[in-house]
Each structure stands twice: as structure tokens, then as C-alpha cells.
Amino acid sequence: MTPTLVRQHPPRTGAVPRVDLRARARDWSEIQERMLVPLYEAVYERLDVGPATRLLGLGCGSGLALLMAASRGAAVTGVDTCADRLALARERLLPDQQREPRARADNRIVHGSPARAARADAYTVVTAFEPIGCLAGDAEELGDLLAEAVPLAGRGAAVVLAGWGPPERCATASVLRVAAKLAEPLRGAGTWRPTDRDDLERVAARAGLRPDGSGRVACPFGYADADSAVRGLKSTGLFDPAVTATDQAQVDKELAEALHPYQRRDGTVWMPNVFRYLVARTP
């Protein structure tokens, strides 16, 4: 090959570039987050998510996937470590009851560890929609989240993991290699790595989960113009190691150049991608 380029947490390099976190969260919510909507829809349809579903979303970001599950009648809880994205998720998921009297009162947004999201009745679905398979250490980080989240789910509950598809099926892979090249001096966790087709199965096995099917979903990244593409991709955090190793201007310049082959005559940017998901079951 995370390509929505999707990185909802700070980079694991230890050094975090200075950014306007509130603006980044808004760019994520308004530009990038929607790129994985086909993935969310495919999973919810396969699992028949509805009023009987109690869903825990790990790395929920600004809550679009949660909102889609809630619109199907599910009771949703979202967990993330990014306060600015969670503020946007609360606006979406926890509306004023006087204005939205039919909104479920048991929807929740939790900042921090999945362990803080425990509820009286166990979750029936756990989702980890942030795709792994492009950053060193991302599989281990997902494993840590599952170690805390799986005990909150009921027996036989569905746990959904997502990952990047093969690099040859992901146009955004070539753009991510720009980040890898610029971040090369760091050579640590948080830098780019090639996708392995068994990433999801290995994570599930380490978490003690039983695979119960998988699928692939086309999730093209489409942007109104090159500026929107740069802002959207940077909002994922995948380019933070590159910014740390070089500087913001250099990253912006090389990112814009890498996007040029995918810019159409009308100025829009279009990059076909394929993502993979695995459905696993708790013991």
C-alpha cells in the first residue's frame, strides 16, 4: 500500500510537528473522512447492523461511521484519543434532545482508552475502521486496542478489522511513498511500510479472535482540487513523520507533485483504491 489515508492518532515517532489540530480535525471531517463510506456501508450491510446492535467504534474520529450506524438504529459508542475530532463527533452523535427528541440517549463518545467504554450490556459489534497496512507499528497498536476492547464484547460478537488493499490496487500508495521517502531519516514506528495480505488475520489471531469472513471494497479518493487533496491527506497524520524529518513546505510541495498524475482536466483529483476488511468473532 490507513490509503482514507486514514491516520486518526498522532504519529508514533515521538516528535509531533506543530499543527493547528482544530483545523486538521475539521479537514478530516469535511474532506477525508467520507472516503471510506463504501467500507462502512459494506460492513454494516453484511452484519445487518440495526436496532438490536450495540456497537463500539475504535478510533472513531469525528464520528461519520458511528452516525451511519446510528441512522440504522444501532446504539453506538465511539472511542478515540483526539479531542478535536471527538468534539465534532459529539456534535454529530449527541444532539440537543429538545431539537432531536428521537436521538438515542445511550449513544456515547469516550475520550481515551477503550476500557473506559464499558457498558452494562456487552457490545455485539466492535469496529476498527482505521486501516492498517501502511505504517510501521500499526498492527501492534491495533492489537493493543483490541486487548482492551474485546473483553467488553459479548460471546460471538463481531469484530471488524480494516486494512489497505494491495499496492497495485491502491493509487494512493504512490503518494504515500512520498511520505516514506521524506521520513526515511527517522526509520522508526510511524514510518511507511508495505502492506502484507495477512496483516488482519495475524492481528485477529493474536487477539484470540476467530475469522468469520472477509471482503474487499472499492474506496476511491476524490477531491475537488489539488489543495483539498493535500489538506485531506495531511489530515490523516500519515505525513507527520515526513514533516518532522523535513518541514511543512517541503512536504506540501512534494505531495502536490505526487498528486499531479491523478488530477483531471477540470482540476479534480481522483485516486482509485481498494480496502480489505476482516470479520472475526469473539470466543
From TrEMBL:
Residues 56-107 form the Methyltransferase type domain. The keyword Methyltransferase applies. GO terms for biological process: methylation. GO terms for molecular function: methyltransferase activity. The keyword Transferase applies. Pfam families: Methyltransf_11. It comes from the Bacteria. This is Methyltransferase domain-containing protein. It comes from Streptomyces atrovirens.
